[in-house]
């Protein structure tokens, strides 16, 4: 990657400063804050939740502060009966528009190969143990289609506004390798 970057900079195709700005923007401005806002809104606004599950690209684009989502985004909803996890078995496709930069493990061969075969064991490695009765479904991302997990709203958050709800939404819970924080974990 560094070699490629060096050549592109030397040939004048890209500027180091511009690259740094793009990376910084994805790290600090985009994600996973945008995803967290989307989930918080889905938790508190039933009609937005319906639109999100129907057409996530369209629904997310209606949030003024988000803008257009570049790729086809599909939102998948967790329930007590079903837990969703996202992977890209081929490479590292990831919903950058809503989650920012992918975590390093997301691109690892270990995660990509194992999550498909033994999702429950991988989940346990992340510290998440679900009832045996909960089905786990793994979604394989592609260059065209990216997935966003809509976790279940934590109990004890009645009356919370969207900003406060968003503080419970972690990056990993939108990939499906984690759960939202408990209300007691945030101030
Ligand atoms: Fe990929």
Could you characterize what this model shows?
By secondary structure, the protein is of the alpha/beta class. It has two domains: 1-30, no CATH class; 31-185, Nitrile hydratase alpha /Thiocyanate hydrolase gamma (Nitrile Hydratase, Chain A). 43% of the residues lie in helices and 13% in strands. The protein has helices spanning 2-10, 16-30, 33-44, 46-54, 56-61, 96-99, 109-117, 119-125, 162-166, 171-175, and strands spanning 72-77, 82-87, 135-140, 145-150. The strands form two sheets. A two-stranded parallel sheet has the order 1-4. The protein has a two-stranded parallel ribbon with strand order 2-3. Residues 88, 90-93, 141 line the site of fe (iii) ion.
Which key phrases capture this entry?
globular; 2 domains; 187 residues; two-stranded parallel sheet; two-stranded parallel ribbon; alpha/beta; 4 strands; binds fe (iii) ion; Nitrile Hydratase, Chain A
Secondary-structure topology with pairs:
Blueprint: H1 2-10, H2 16-30, H3 33-44, H4 46-54, H5 56-61, E1 72-77, E2 82-87, H6 96-99, H7 109-117, H8 119-125, E3 135-140, E4 145-150, H9 162-166, H10 171-175
Parallel strand pairs: 1-4, 2-3
Bound molecules: fe (iii) ion.
Number of domains: 2
> CATH architecture of the largest domain, please?
Alpha-Beta Complex
Strand arrangement in the largest pleated sheet:
1-4
**Order of SSEs:** HHHHHEEHHHEEHH
**Count of individual beta strands:** 4
Low-confidence parts, pLDDT < 50 over ≥5 residues? none
Characterize the largest beta sheet: strand count, sense, and whether it forms a barrel: 2 strands, parallel
Average pLDDT confidence is: 90
User: At the third CATH level, what is the topology name of the largest domain?
Assistant: Nitrile Hydratase, Chain A
């Amino acid at each position: 990657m560094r070699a490629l970057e060096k050549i592109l900079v030397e040939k004048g195709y890209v500027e180091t400063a511009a690259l740094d700005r793009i990376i910084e923007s994805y790290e600090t401005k985009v994600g996973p804050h945008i995803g967290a806002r989307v989930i918080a809104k889905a938790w508190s606004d039933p009609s937005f939740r319906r639109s999100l599950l129907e057409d996530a690209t369209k629904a997310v684009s209606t949030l003024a502060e988000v803008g257009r989502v570049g790729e086809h985004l599909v939102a998948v909803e967790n329930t007590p009966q079903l837990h969703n996890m996202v992977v890209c078995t081929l490479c590292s496709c990831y919903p950058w528009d809503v989650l920012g930069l992918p975590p390093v493990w997301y691109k690892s061969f270990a995660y990509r190969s194992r999550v498909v075969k033994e999702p429950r064991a991988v989940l346990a490695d992340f510290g998440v143990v679900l009832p045996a009765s909960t089905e786990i479904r793994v979604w394989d991302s592609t260059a065209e289609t990216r997935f966003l997990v809509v976790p279940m709203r934590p109990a004890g958050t009645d009356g919370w506004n969207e900003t406060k709800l968003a503080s419970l939404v972690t990056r990993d819970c939108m990939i499906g390798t984690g759960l939202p924080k408990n209300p007691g974990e945030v101030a």
